[in-house]
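fyi for ur records
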Amino acid sequence: MKRTTLRPAVGYLVCRSGLACLMGLACVPSCVGVGVGVGDGRPAATTADHPPQATSQPRQVLGATPPASRIVAWSGTAQVGVVDRFEIGRSAGDRPIYVYRLSAGEGDPDTKPGLLIVAGLDARQSSMFAIARGLIEKLDGVRGLADATVYVIAQPNPDASALDSSTNRLGAAFPGGTLTPVDLDRDGRVDEDGPMDLNGDGFITMMRIANPPPEYGLRLTHIVDPDQPRLMRPADASKGEVATHAMHVEAVDQDGDGKMGEDGVGGVDLNMNFPYRWPEFANGNGAYPLSEAESKALATWLLGRPNILATVVYGPHDTIVNVPEAGRFDHTGRVPLGLERDDKALMDRLSEMYKEATKVTRAERVGLEGSFAGWAYAHLGLLTIATNPWQRPDAPKDEAQDAPAEQPKEEAPPPAADEPPFVMIGDFKLVLTREAIMAAMSEAQGLSPDEQQARMDAFMALPESTRQRIMNIAQGAADPAAPPEPPPARTPARPARRGTGGASEDAAWLAYADRVGHGYVDWQPYDHPQLGRVEIGGFVPGLKINPPEDMIDEIVRAQAGFVEQLLAMLPRVVVDAPVVERVDEGVWRVSVTVRNEGELPTRTAMGTKARWLTPYVLALVLPRDRVLAGSPIERRDSIAAGQSLRAQWLVLGGAGEKISAQLRTVEFGTTEITIELAETTPAGAAR
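which gave:
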């Protein structure tokens, strides 16, 4: 069957409010229009708001078919794996942004199911670049590339990556962000007052100030941790602790405005510059979504690669160890705060696979507002896995004897005697607390009209007293049917003012820094020109987000194992041989079946809802007066794993005549299906 490529044009709007008008997902006034012609790669429209570097033409570069940079023969097979590199845009500093494409076997790589790997949007995580490049080496030539294509963007923020990894980068407003000048302190000047390495030790750490002068507005907030005197922690007023020190990044007041280190070099964090729930009033977000040359180049290129079905994003975010909740939406009821319900089971399954393959079982929860990962899932519907591939390793067991004695743990409070009261509204369990009722009302906004009506009918079927009880609780009134509260327990004596010792995260990081021999600077006195006597020290920036170099290979092997499993699961769309049956003289029953042999759906539930890609179409190419029965066109938004799209027609034609059908997809192009009007066996062969 002949295979051609279909590339319809796709457009989107980037709103100053942070939402993207993607096929009706959200729409607000005052949008900045950006058109993307997927067919030829040329931007359909530009705006003066974007810097010139952001108006590159990534699809023209990809369509030029340059020679591969490297060709590697597979060991023991006749297949050939190809790794080639293309420029997809340039940074604000006019540095190239590259994508590496890994493919093998026959066919156009850009019409095979694609997996995108993005690393290093936050340039502080310098190890992400090494991990991404290592994955290129590990994945090159794997068998999964015969049916899929891997794209790797290892350094999407080249300007920040090019800075010195100690003082120059850490003196920036957002050390891992772009170098776009931003007036963060709103004084009409840019980049004039950033953090500084005052004591010349090669790092920009923290200052602890015991007696801050009042003119600088510094408040006493921290105390020396009683269990770890090298650490500072916030004072706990509930335990009677009184703060003794103010904390501030290493800096002086360079512009005389009474602030220190508040307006460093640059100021845009790429992880806050994408249209998903763009944090409009946060520092580091950029002037508007995709305001940066780097983020726009990445978004423009990705919109021109509809064959990409999944993405793995290496950075500070996590959606795979801690799988997001399902069924929660923003105030519009359209933009997901987590996952679509029908994607939850798949993500839970992938989470177990990931933990087993990589041994990464814990991760920090970081908000996805403005992130590439949030945008890729919520707006494009891609299967998105965001992960920080390295977590602090635990201390070796043989060091346990050297550790300080563990403090006795407080016993957990006994569980409540009974569950919170609830009622069943149909098959929906509603807990009778104001928070749960408000959450249920918000959740209902995301239901379909039919589901909303069914929920309302079930609510109206409740006894009137129960409905009134729910309404009273929702309005903040006390639950009239709740049992009386027990008398308050006696307040225990105030415990000794001790810290959390070895159980605290900072204590664990300090122990890790001591094991590896770097990453922490002991406090040293310093005569500050404006604050007087201070002490400088603390954790070295980067310690908690970058693994030691000798662990990179181990991380790459683990991540490559998971990515290879993910590649094998990608959807594989197969068109079965047509089945033809003679019904009468000149009348034929024709059946065509399209199956998904992969373990993943062709589109996620979020991708189906977003609808920025047109449905799959199975069409009979024949004049309508020759079609006696059956719809000439069958459509499907997605084909689930192991499921099929099937069409059957009753047509007129002479024996032996050849007619045709087409499978039309945005992701994989158009597949021509030739059908001979001759009775076939069950296997599809003519007889």
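Residues 191 and 265 are 5 Å apart (CA to CA). thats all i got for now
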